[in-house]
Amino acid sequence: MSTPTMDDAAKVFTDPTAYADDARLHAALTHLRANTPVAWVDNPPYRPFWAITKHADIMAIERDNNLWLSEPRPLLVTAEADDFGKQQLEAGMGLRTLIHMDDPHHRKVRAIGADWFRPKAMRDLKVNVDALAKRYVDKMRDIGPECDFVTDIAVNFPLYVIMSLLGLPEEDFPRMHQLTQEMFGGDDEEYNKRGQSPEEQLTILLDFFNYFAQLTASRRENPTDDLASAIANGRIDGEPLSEVDTASYYVIVASAGHDTTKDAISGGLLALIENPGELERLRKDPALMGTAVEEMIRWTTPVKEFMRTAAEDTEVRGVPIAEGESVYLAYVSGNRDEEVFDEPFRFDVSRDPNKHVAFGYGVHFCLGAALARMEMNSLFSELIPRLESIELAGEPELAATTFVGGLKHLPIRYSLR
């Protein structure tokens, strides 16, 4: 079989700096949607894959989880890191979270934490989240009239929520933040404190695992009413979770549970600053907050991609894809698809319907989606009525990434009641 031709625009998927440059990224994605919606990407040090840029194709692949598998390649990493990760898993040391798993095991493991994110649990949690939102808006007022909204507010608010849900002590929060930053920020020089090699990244993972191994032992000996206890004492077919699955469960909840929300919150505020008419609409009509939050999530799309591998020969949009080949689900592109979203590059706080794919779709739909929505609703419902003025106080900076990311700095000048 002949080697497919690669569209140069598809190189953005393997370039972490592209996600730190919105104009360059979206120019490439717009071109690919129009000309090469199923794009071949062969750009070492990554193994080849097909990039899927149309919303309908992303949805169809997510829906068919028997044909399209998360294992063995759930996200984009270099070939070296991929091989190293598999070796670590075989040695009982690697990361194996919900995003790495397929049904039926995925469904059983997901069920262990699912009750903590259901509507009733969210209603019970809302009073505390609202109180935390007020605490952080008060902090914003107290440190004003300028701050870096990312590092001062957007990082800490969702971190506090998810750590509290797990039942972790507040003195451990900075450590969790640092570990998350290092794990998700390995492509960005500012976050990359320990290096990018697989061995250096493993030291970060081992820090997580060691911390959570102690937590597991504590919660098994003395269970408490928190998510950490539910994970520590979770059972699959009557058997306790393996050490790898237990530690991995903590890692995905503790890291993804706050980092993605931080990106949506900070990117959402920037969108309001850059679109003052939409900020004023939201100020005048607080009933728009629900649709505004969904638009912020679509606009920022903190999780840039997941990957799936074909379980048998198939095709997407007429392009043959062989068994064992992988596809890259370009969520950022799907969320700007002109066939799905009216004026997709317009930020609209009343956009409805808003069928974004920022939380994924199907069996891998984000476990914490309801929590993220609630946190954003609480924070902006507290902030916007108190906001007298706001403007940029410097240049916003996006993080380089190929997986999860958003703003790393958002300097603002403001006045708050």
From TrEMBL:
<keyword id="KW-0503">Monooxygenase</keyword>
<keyword id="KW-0408">Iron</keyword>
<comment type="similarity">
    <text>Belongs to the cytochrome P450 family.</text>
</comment>
<keyword id="KW-0153">Cholesterol metabolism</keyword>
<keyword id="KW-0479">Metal-binding</keyword>
<keyword id="KW-0443">Lipid metabolism</keyword>
<keyword id="KW-1207">Sterol metabolism</keyword>
<keyword id="KW-0349">Heme</keyword>
<dbReference type="Pfam" id="PF00067">
    <property type="entry name" value="p450"/>
</dbReference>
<dbReference type="GO" id="GO:0020037">
    <property type="term" value="F:heme binding"/>
</dbReference>
<dbReference type="InterPro" id="IPR017972">
    <property type="entry name" value="Cyt_P450_CS"/>
</dbReference>
<dbReference type="InterPro" id="IPR001128">
    <property type="entry name" value="Cyt_P450"/>
</dbReference>
<dbReference type="GO" id="GO:0006707">
    <property type="term" value="P:cholesterol catabolic process"/>
</dbReference>
<dbReference type="GO" id="GO:0008395">
    <property type="term" value="F:steroid hydroxylase activity"/>
</dbReference>
<dbReference type="GO" id="GO:0036199">
    <property type="term" value="F:cholest-4-en-3-one 26-monooxygenase activity"/>
</dbReference>
<protein>
    <recommendedName>
        <fullName>Steroid C26-monooxygenase</fullName>
    </recommendedName>
</protein>
<keyword id="KW-0560">Oxidoreductase</keyword>
<keyword id="KW-0442">Lipid degradation</keyword>
<dbReference type="InterPro" id="IPR002397">
    <property type="entry name" value="Cyt_P450_B"/>
</dbReference>
<dbReference type="InterPro" id="IPR036396">
    <property type="entry name" value="Cyt_P450_sf"/>
</dbReference>
<keyword id="KW-0753">Steroid metabolism</keyword>
<comment type="pathway">
    <text>Steroid metabolism; cholesterol degradation.</text>
</comment>
<dbReference type="GO" id="GO:0005506">
    <property type="term" value="F:iron ion binding"/>
</dbReference>
